[in-house]
Amino acid sequence: MEHTLMTLPYSYKALEPYMSEETLSFHHGKHHAGYVAKLNTLIKDSEYAEMSLVKIIKKSTGPIFNNAAQVFNHDFFWHGLLNEETTPSVELSDSIEQQFGSIDAFKTAFIDAGVSLFGSGWVWLSVDQEKVLHIEQTSNADNPIVSGRVPLMVCDVWEHAYYLDHRNGRAEYLINWWQLLNWHFVSDNFAEQKEKRNHYYIHECNENTEVCDYMSDLEEAERVSS
Description:
Elements: H1 21-43, H2 53-59, H3 62-79, H4 90-100, H5 103-116, E1 121-127, E2 133-139, E3 150-156, H6 163-166, H7 170-179, H8 183-191, H9 193-202, H10 210-225
Antiparallel strand pairs: 1-2, 1-3
Helix pairs in contact: 1-3, 2-3, 5-7
């Protein structure tokens, strides 16, 4: 299985003035493409050669994990951007307000998490099996799949995501990124969290291990209660 660079659902100019054509073309066309190419090289003729991206992330370590996770993370990041005003669904908005106090309080907490993350990484909104929302800081290529949560939204805070536009101004970048946040994508992920969890943790789980047994028990419990 050869992994491919995703086609963006917009042009390189589409996110201006919040993200420049230059940044988008380098970030997607060079950095993201580089992870895809490196992953394909690393998994050729290996046990990972025919695995899905999610399965590679869950089973691998080292350079293979890093490149597979970075492909997934960037795919997720691009889908979460849209240069038009959107709003969260009623269900997502209610959950955010219940757990963070307000959308504005959540925005402040999320941006603060992005600014304060040391080094390179990602800031996520994820949801666990109890439907509790989490703002997660992950270093380098890590993502919520590793910790058993379903990702809902993400911001890339690797320096290559913003240096051309903002130099070392990560806070300014995060504020501009918020203007591009595609709440439709986030809301869909929240609404489909059960299906997403099944995809990430159950459909990919075909071994007789304690983790697979645990995820199967969760699926059965959710089926019975629904």
